[in-house]
Amino acid sequence: MEFPSKLIENAVEELAKLPGVGKKTALRLALHLLKNESEDTFLLAESLVKMRTEVKHCKQCHNISDTEVCGICSNPLRDKSLLCVVSDIRDVIAIENTSQYKGLYHVLGGVISPLEGVGPSDLHIDSLLERLLPNSEVKEVLMAISPTMEGDTTAFYLTRKLRDHQNLKITSIARGIPVGGELEYTDEITLGRSIVERTAYGRA
Amino acid sequence: MEFPSKLIENAVEELAKLPGVGKKTALRLALHLLKNESEDTFLLAESLVKMRTEVKHCKQCHNISDTEVCGICSNPLRDKSLLCVVSDIRDVIAIENTSQYKGLYHVLGGVISPLEGVGPSDLHIDSLLERLLPNSEVKEVLMAISPTMEGDTTAFYLTRKLRDHQNLKITSIARGIPVGGELEYTDEITLGRSIVERTAYGRA
Ligand SMILES: [Zn+2]
Ligand SMILES: [Zn+2]
């Protein structure tokens, strides 16, 4: 694609480095910014730089945070006996938005993937095990890791690491038919698991 | 959506003001920037601010440009007898990328749309008429405006404004079946026009 302006070309190239943004979309975004008040562009640029420079990772759960310890970890109303293990910050946001979970989190920062060269030492596993030492307040670890091959491998790895913790309950998010989902459109594996792991009628 | 960090929330809000970017996409983009080198975020922000501050509009054709007069208008190899009227800068880029056009452009900056309150005076029509005064080098005006209702209205308005220019040829981009398109999937109006405006066999 040829551009009538080197300045636009640069902006398009930088925008097109974002995931899911092709050159055409990048051009549309650049032209949108040109059409609007320059203030809009300045606010966007400033918010990105400020975020990139100032955002921290919670030193306890590795969630993103504006402070050393995140708002969830430091909230006295959260249930410290329950720890939810997720691979990604997005999972924390998704679970928080359900308003169904009141425990703490631990963000692994990915899943074990030999193909992509991600081993256990690349994830926040050591700090998870530290949080689960015998004197820990945690009584239950809820594995909320996506049921992909890599996700299942990661959950299996963690479960094995934790098998000596006699008093620790290890649970997993339920697999089954999505709420509002129809049986006939559900894949066989999910449908199969929803039968094997059937729950008593009326259970929440 | 609740965010674990005010800094991320701000960035997501600014990103979500971009066209076609919802909150979920904005969050994905923000987390991508957080995962990568801060240098990437700085380059992106800088390129946007630089573009917004420094890009000019060509004072002749209203195309975007790094200089007072754009590279197309100032190129001595372009055919100054041929002027292509488009509504948007994106159309210039699209036509340039075909490598089939060697004339000049005039960017209207939109189309006449009474519903959206866009009248002729909101577009670069006066400067177009000035470029077509009797002593002008332009011999042909090629209307390359999208065949929507507003686009057709705009082309019709311009054609009427130019009807006294005796020696000016007014043409329009050809309507017809897209190259590689199949007859049976073409809408009736396009198919109809492609028959009415049929061309001699073998013509380029
Ligand atoms: Zn935390
Ligand atoms: Zn120009």
TrEMBL record, chains A, B:
- Pfam families, alphabetized: RecR_C, RecR_HhH, RecR_ZnF, Toprim_4
Q: What Gene3D superfamilies has UniProt attached to this entry?
A: 3.30.60.80, 3.40.1360.10, 6.10.250.240, RecR Domain 1
Which InterPro entries does the entry link to?
A: DNA_Rcmb_RecR, Hlx-hairpin-Hlx_DNA-bd_motif, Rcmb_RecR, Rcmb_RecR_Znf, TOPRIM_dom, TOPRIM_RecR
**UniProt entry keywords in alphabetical sequence:** DNA damage, DNA recombination, DNA repair, Metal-binding, Zinc, Zinc-finger
Q: Which GO terms describe its biological process?
A: DNA recombination; DNA repair
Q: Which GO terms describe its molecular function?
A: DNA binding; zinc ion binding
PROSITE patterns given for it?
Answer: RECR (PS01300), TOPRIM (PS50880)
> Which stretches of the protein fold into C4-type zinc fingers, per the record?
58-73
Ranges for domain Toprim come to 81-178
Family membership, please give it. Belongs to the RecR family.
- Which purpose does this protein serve, as stated in its record? May play a role in DNA repair. It seems to be involved in an RecBC-independent recombinational process of DNA repair. It may act with RecF and RecO.
HAMAP family for the chain: RecR
Name of the protein? Recombination protein RecR
